[in-house]
Amino acid sequence: MMLWILFALMTAAAAIAILVPMTRAARVDDTTVAADEAVYKAQLEEVDRDLARGLVDEEAAAAARTEIARRLLAARRSAGAGIAASGWSWPVRVGQAVAVVGLPAGALALYLVLGSPDYPDQPLAARLAEPTEGQRVETLVARVEQHLASNPEDGKGWEVLGPVYMRLGRPQEAARAYANAIRLLGSTEQRESDYGEALVIVNRGIVNADARAAFERAVALAPDAVKPRYFLALALGQEGKRAQAVAAWQALLAGAAGNEPWVVSAREELAALGGEAPALRGPSAEDVEAAQDMPEADRREMILGMVQGLKDRLESQGGSVDEWLRLIQAYAVLGLTDEAKAAAGKASAAYQADEAALGRIRSQIKEIGLDS
Q1: For residue 292, is pLDDT > 80?
Q2: Tens of pLDDT along 24-66?
């Protein structure tokens, strides 16, 4: 019902917007005619008074009356032309009819074709009561927010809401959700790291005291966790502690395989501080074997990324014979014989002056059957 009332009000507003200027123009012309008539009537009365006082004779008075009448007729004809031009000619009358009748009828017809007049109203409360399947993210968030408004001590609810707020670009609310989850459920590396990250985003990339404290708590719970160590290294650089920041970035990169998404930015931060990036470890045979339990597509994508990172670094920066052997072994395990042979050739060329290293390379070539 409210929808139809809204439509009626919108239609009336549109019609008024067209009709008011037309009516105003006509009203202006009527006012002008009335003013002219008043002036000419006063002039006729003045002629009669002059005649009565003997200031003019009857002939002169008749001539004056004739001239005044002529001017009044001319003024009326001019006003009539203005009315016809401004609001009362037939094209304008057609426009008025379209505004009053055609506009509402056209809008109604368009809505009946494209709209859903029989679709019932959907107030927020009703939408929140519907099954969650197929609902928009905003509606689902509203459901959780409504639940938490009534149950503010539901830590799981806050924990669910935090990552959703982050994906929606609402880091301030995400930080509040993570803080509540930590308060109600306790501190974990994941919760502390996510809380600190939200605070960093709120502060436009600056690791403030609250965020730093969260990351320190996360590292205390999981010393090898990457995210909190990354932000703590970033904080050291922002605080001007160059030597400590370089050491932190180097320690973080030393345990990387090379294909992680954060490696590029970590190397850039380290280079900006004038530090030298450590050699990234490549996949060992154990890494490759450990991935056998993963889904085929995921396993192969992970391993190929690690292998490619090692290959690129060895070809551009060089590396130890152990790293070359690891690269050859990884290609062999993946069944990429041609790539394994190419890596073996490059390794042999790199260590052609080192007989001990060449002996190890030849031994591995023979062991995995690349010499056949």
Answers
A1: no
A2: 544 444 555 566 666 667 777 776 776 777 666 777 767 777 7
- Fold match between domain 156-272 and domain 285-367: yes
C-alpha span between 185 and 178 (Å, rounded): 10
Distance of CA 232 to the CA centre of its chain: 28
For domain 156-272, say whether CATH 3.30.10.20 is its number.
no
258 secondary structure, DSSP code: S
**For the chain, how many residues are written?**
372
Q: What is the dihedral of CA 289, 292, 296, 302, to 10 degrees?
A: -50
Single-letter residue type at 185: L
Contacts of 332 by beta carbon, 8 Å cutoff, 6+ apart: 340, 368, 370
Are 43 and 131 contacting, i.e. CB atoms less than 8 angstroms apart?
no
CATH architecture of 285-367: Alpha Horseshoe (1.25)
The domain segmentation of the chain, as residue ranges, is 2-114, 156-272, 285-367
Cα angle 124, 128, 129 (rounded to 5 degrees) comes to: 120
